[in-house]
Amino acid sequence: MEKSVFKKLENFFSKRKLLNYKKGEIIIRSDDIPQGVFYVQKGYVSLYTMLEDGRQITLNIFKPGSYFSMMWAISDIPNAYCFQAITQTSLYRAPKGEVVDFLKRNPDVLFDVTRRILVGLDGILTIIQHLVSGTAYQKIGTTLVILAKRFGRKSRNLGITIELALTHQDIANLCGITRETTSLAMKKLEKKKLISYNTHHVVVKSVLKLEKNLKRKNLFHTTLITL
Q1: What is the pLDDT of residue 131?
Q2: How many CB atoms lie within 10 A of CB 217?
């Protein structure tokens, strides 16, 4: 995102109501009509859906600077997903009409939204690919590569620490597999010294080495994008 666009968004949303959510708190439930467009000022928010067999699939993670409910705001598409705070989170909420008017007056911000939507579509297609192809090991490895690139903090000694404190269940939800299968794959990656742990954070020793270790390179894509 360009600095000028970021400043416009910050200036627009910071004048609206600030809402605080605890870790694990639901922000929007599936089939709820959103009360506005939310801008992430602090924390992280997951977008997920529930499958018929009871599994939870995390489709996206929104980080600071992201905003959501845009499909509903722009296209009037009914909301069918759950949005949940996965950390202590602060969000600005702006009325739908004001957001749409703001986008119409600022074509550079609208262009940024369009770009995000297209990247988001690419991410959804990648998620579908994850669900129908590849082994659990490949799914977990690919997801960790993406998380490291998106939420990673570099350290000379450790590698890249994923700043989100994710449990094995959280990672399982991102991959559409069980926690038990995820734990086995994580142990395998740890045994190969491709990952390690720093308190509650996963550390990817080398993204390049992990990528080379995974045979299905076509699985590498920019999923977990920000809409």
Answers
A1: 63
A2: 10
